[in-house]
Structure formats: structure tokens, C-alpha cells
Amino acid sequence: MTKTYSVSVVGIANQLRNSFYKILDKNKIIYYLVPTYFGFTKITHFETFRLAEIINKQIYLSIPSLDPVYDYFKNIVKLCLTLNIPITWFTPTGLNFTQFYALSIQNKVSISFKNKTKNVVLR
Prior knowledge:
about 120 residues, alpha+beta, three-stranded antiparallel beta sheet, two-stranded antiparallel ribbon, 3 helices, 7 strands, about 40% helix
């Protein structure tokens, strides 16, 4: 569902991890319990990423016409950003959405206190 919002493979993996039950074994390794036909199976952090890669790839294999449509919308967003105009659309029920993405400038700041340093990004 979040593919339309430019979710990356990492984002898909994080969404999967958030939807699975997390367990910690005696060696302090985190596993995720994934429901299967025969109950549950344990997968690792890396395996959730591999699963996300498969899901991302299958989206485009299952619906090949999605790729040019997806690229079209990404280019429209880039154009709106360049022209500094909001993106507006209507849902089938008539609800109006407007999003405005302002370009931001980032400043990185290091803060030190009691021999500890914290890096902060200010936008």
C-alpha cells in the first residue's frame, strides 16, 4: 500500500518487522515470528530484508503496467517541487487532498555534554 508513497525496500522491511511478533533468544539475537500455513516460523533481521526485496520485485512483475505509471507520478512530484507548487488530488469519494513539499536546507550540529556527543540534523 505504501508503494505509492515511494516506500523503499528498507521501508517495506521495517513495515514487515513492525507487523511481526519480535522475540529475543538466549544469545540476544532478534527473530521475527512470521505466520505460515503450519503455524509460525522464525526469521532474522536480514531475512525480513530479503522478503521485502521479493515483495518489491513482485509488485512490478505482477503488475508490469505499474512501472511507467509510477515513474510518471514521481516525475510529476519532481516537477511540482521544482515549480514550488502543491500537489492536489481527489479521492473517488470526493475528498480533496493537498500536499505541499517545501525544499529544506539541512544543517548538521554536534552537541557535546558530559563527554557524550549527539549529532542532530536541523532542517
